[in-house]
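Pasting two entries for a bug report.
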Amino acid sequence: MQENKIDSLINEMQKLSAAIERMAGPAPAVNDWSQAECFVWAPGNRHLQPVAKPNRVDLALITGVDHVRDILLDNTLRFAEGYPANNVLLWGARGMGKSSLVKAVHARVARETGTSLKLVEVHREDIATLPALMEILKAAPMPVIVFCDDLSFDHDDTSYKSLKAVLDGGVEGRPANVLLYATSNRRHLLPRNMMENEQSTAINPSEAVEEKVSLSDRFGLWLGFYKCSQDDYLAMIDGYARYYDLNVDQETLHADALEWATTRGSRSGRVAWQFIQDLAGRLRRQLDDPA
């Protein structure tokens, strides 16, 4: 009888312990920087998930944005070498290689400097967890670029305040070994109607607008991307064709590429890459990096 009571008590204690563990959530994961060059932030268990094969292209393939490419490359190089550098907002036309440029520059700088420069991607919906990420990154023994792709904020979205605090504000500020790179289709990150609503309801309308615009101002570099010309578009096509050794005569290549752009209703780096994928498929060629 006594043994049954003890067994029952042990069983109840085990259930209680399991319930407490579930309430506490998963234990923080052990982050191993040696596993990869690129990581994705998983805030649920404070884990930096290693990316074994990052989705990126060689920097030489990104054309038509030479000026901003050189600025971003120089800024990243200085950061990797331990010198002052700025947070960067890459904004502008869709499909012009903003996110591709960030990943390609990271790869080039890490390779050429021989440093352990890391890239950590933060999903847009996880922006509010940036302070927790900073706690992990400030202890990292190497420079880290935090990257957020397609960043923007909707009406009544207050998570931008976490980004604002990390960029410049807060008592502790941004760790010296961390930079933030973000891409957006909007220069000011917040929708105009959101800014106008703040202006119409605020006691001091001008201060409300300044509060919203100041988020973008906290990026030291603004790099603009604009719709490409036909010449730039064809230069992208030629660059891809040479890099992947797609043997098509230039007249035919350009005619097909322009027809492809016409059916898409736009010209951009993304459209050029989609055409090359289609062309390689028709030629039964793999788009692997050349040896």
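Entry 2 (this is the one that rendered wrong in the viewer):
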Amino acid sequence: MGSRNDGAFDPRSLKPNREGLLCVDDGTTLPWQEFGAGPAVVLANGIGVRWPGLAHQISVLRDRRRVVCWDYRGMGPSRLGRPDADVSMGRQADDVLALMNHMGIERAILGGWSMGVQVSLEVLRRRPERVAGFVALLGTYGRPFRGAFPAPVAAVTEATFALALRFPALAQRPLDLAVALPGLAFRVLSGAVFVGADADRRVFDGNVRWVQQTDRRVYLRTMLELARHDASDVLPGVRCPSLIVCGARDHLTPPRVARRMAETIPGAEYLELAGATHFGLIEQQQTLDARLVAFVDRVWGGP
């Protein structure tokens, strides 16, 4: 199966069955969205991206399962309880558990894209008995820049984000330009193999808009926490069924990182999407979604 970019499914037509707002213990508010019914699949997004970024995956699961998403703290409509509120991967995982408690979900399959993989691994660190299955979509177990680039380049990348936190207005300008000129931005980014030329533009352009609208300080603080995070020690102890998906042209979380994850987690399944970038979930969604549905059905025993 190949790419599903023929217009048969319009991600903008997808709507939650229910939405709500959860206030957690530090005063931060977390908007959540629910689709479908049945055993739960909790989907953790990429940094700064809202649930429409996972629209293709939600659409194939909502008729079979209860799919739950939420907005990371301080992103989208979420509001931090205080400006310096904790945005670490561990704190994000605490939010997942609070949301599951709020919604009466005892166990769930956790699926994460990009940063969502690291958040899901922190849930596995804290409460593995509440995770029925683990899906890593184009992400890593930690230290993403060190896994993607040679050490000197990784150090410069991390330092650049730290510098941008001191001057957030400068970091905002390229995003403003990308939203103002989406066609040009997409050509530049696809030419740099950041995203594939066959990506669903409706989803990708929406993702760029959400990131552009995120408070720059919150985004950059979260990015630095993501860069420092390491859950490599969690991998050998994962005992739930696991599916690791990577893109062959993903330069942010490259296949060698995904293969190590799959080799270290006992019994993990591995899927490499030929030709896909970090946005393989909107480039080769038919291939990915078929494997995702099959995995979820195995874990929960059929629709």
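Dev reply: Rendering is fixed now. As a check, the viewer should reflect this: The CA atoms of residues 36 and 284 lie 23 Å apart.
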